[in-house]
# Entry
Amino acid sequence: MAGDGPGAVTQHVAATGTTVNGRRLELVTGDITHQSVDAIGNAANSALRGGGGVDGAIHRAAGPGLLDELVSRYPSGTPTGTAADTNAHGLSARWILHAVGPIWRGGSHGEAEHLAGAYRSCLELCDQLGARSLALPAISMGIYGYPPAEGARTAIRTVGEHLRADTSLEVVRFVLFSEETHAHFAAALVEELEGGPDAGGASSSA
Ligand code: ADP
# Structure
């Protein structure tokens, strides 16, 4: 892993986390563009042409070369529930993983499967690329309107499943933009990894 880097400056609450199968799953509050990790996840739209929210912040920080790479490598974008990799350009990372989460339409349109798929694709790309550290945002939980408690549980469950299996990843860090979102992820971490029958030997630490 590449270390804490300037991201530590923007963390408003203490980092929390858990250990799954000897690997770290961390929660911090901050700006994902300030993280120094191997791979940074982005909450992109299916066209992969930039947008608002975290996508806009990542494009601004990465610089115009990011859009050029997306246009040339992914002329048709990528479907909802998948992710596509690029170089990190101006970001302090090796790769950006552009994940497309679902727009919330009430919950009966495959939203949970698509959200899990977006996270899973990022995790699988990390294994293909050999990434050891990954920072992830709360995909779909902004403009796309996914209910945060439900979305956080899906996010934590999907990452927890991946960390229990064979993976190149040593650290997965959710970088949440507000303390409210952080609180939803902290609750989900207890429910999904520490409290239930599938806890898998996870142990928490502050
Ligand atoms: P989506 O369209 O998938 O909902 P958004 O970018 O609107 O994506 O929001 C996803 C999450 O990312 C929200 O919780 C939002 O507050 C958060 N977010 C926005 N900017 C940043 C940033 N710079 N770093 C980390 N998270 C961010």
Observations:
- Confidence is low (pLDDT under 50) at residues 1-13, 197-201.
- The helical segments are 53-62, 65-73, 111-129, 148-164, 179-195.
- The longest strand covers residues 23-29.
